[in-house]
Amino acid sequence: MPPRGNSEQTSRARLSSVIKSARDTMRKDAGLNGDLDRLPQLSWLLFLRAFDAMEANREVWDDDFRPAIIEKYRWRAWAGNPFLTGDDLLTFVNDELLPHLRGLKADRPGDPRNVLSALFKDIRNQMMSGYLLRDLLDGLQKIDFTSSDDIHTMAFLYESILKEVRDAAGDSGEFYTPRPVIRFMVEQSFLRLGESILDPACGTGGFLVEALENLQGGTGSTHERQQLWRNLRGIEKKPLPYLLCMMNLILHGVESPSVIRDNALTRMLDEQGQKVHVILTNPPFGGEEENSVAARFPTAVRTKETAWLFLHSVLTKLRPGGRCAIVLPNGVLFGDGAGTAIKEKLLRECDLHTIVRLPQGIFAPYTQIPANLLFFDKTGPTKEVWFYQIDPPEGRKNYSKTKPLRYEEFADCAAWWGGTDRASRTTTNHAWSVPISDIIRAGYNLDLSNPTVSNDLAHRPPAELLADLLTTERGILNLLESLQRDLKVGK
């Protein structure tokens, strides 16, 4: 029997060839333009292939098994039929298969039929050639989703494809959390089995997959694994990231992901009685919510700035004793108006124990907006806030797609952290603490720089100065808009 390492290398080489062939096939089709078209097409087909394999496995060991999809529409029946091709295949997929999947419904929460109907609500087959679609299906048949080697390798390959589509999406205004940031936030949240973990802006599932990998080594039974899957919860508003998130989790072994496609802000307002232990998230920032959403928030915290509304929603969604790690832009730290009320609520109800100030350009080249990681526990009022400044490696001035942030750059901060009780923290050239009285006296401004480092403008890069200026201008604009709204209502 060959060593496992050789088996994995063989599996990776074979599956890399399968995926390359699949992408080459899709490039020939006139209906697909670029990876932002090709990846969704590949993803929903892979989903059905993986789902069919999971159902085949359940048929073996589950005496009460009932297929979620009737025989005619199961992958093995149509995708496995080499004689169904050309226009007949397109007609079947477009007029029968996809409408059937969208129409599935069940009364029992968590039923796979509800997952399928939600997932395929906005899915459309974009391939125009039924013959190329047949070639694609035949290639995907070569992936063995009952093999642990194939599943592990497919997850690895899918992550690499996701990175490519994230890069492409970034060019159109969307950008995703770098994997080193996700890993650091998950590790410093000290997750425990049995806790409910939510990402209300889950995108393609980076935080959920990292939490899964962080915890699944402690699961010893099928029941514990299934409980972990149920405890990993996500909400995503846009159909493409939702599809990619579902596929990402399935390829990482989660049979029925607890991910909902919805506006997280309204969803969390509607489910205020359903609290969670942990929230890990990077909410969208720099955008605005529609008026009908903002109007549902209390008057004192009403704003259209998405990041502010997410922070307020997180505070109400956490259960007592719960904790959160969240990515927020600098503008949230010093924002006024509704922002002051939200920060006052944060510091009154939670222990904001740590703010990690990230280097400039973490999300480059998509945005130069400076970002921070906020860690807080819903255990009572803040007494002091620790700040930790992470600087770029020596000689590095900025980050890019070819020179991204590395996980090793968080090593010193992780060593300084001090475990779950944070008892061993000390002031260093990178770390300092500020008592709550000083923060209140400063009007709840949390945009505090390292007091041990000179802020000499002459030695700061022009791009950094421009980014800070834009952030300040946005903060001023938000304040002026808030004052204008107050004047309109006669305040």
Automatic annotation (TrEMBL):
Its EC number is 2.1.1.72. GO terms for molecular function: DNA binding; N-methyltransferase activity; site-specific DNA-methyltransferase (adenine-specific) activity. It is an enzyme of class 2 (transferase). It catalyses: a 2'-deoxyadenosine in DNA + S-adenosyl-L-methionine = an N(6)-methyl-2'-deoxyadenosine in DNA + S-adenosyl-L-homocysteine + H(+). SUPFAM superfamilies: S-adenosyl-L-methionine-dependent methyltransferases (SSF53335). Keywords: Methyltransferase, Restriction system, S-adenosyl-L-methionine, Transferase. The keyword Magnesium does not apply. Residues 151-453 form the DNA methylase adenine-specific domain. Belongs to the N(4)/N(6)-methyltransferase family. This is site-specific DNA-methyltransferase (adenine-specific). It comes from Sphaerisporangium album. The lineage of its organism: Bacteria, Bacillati, Actinomycetota, Actinomycetes, Streptosporangiales.
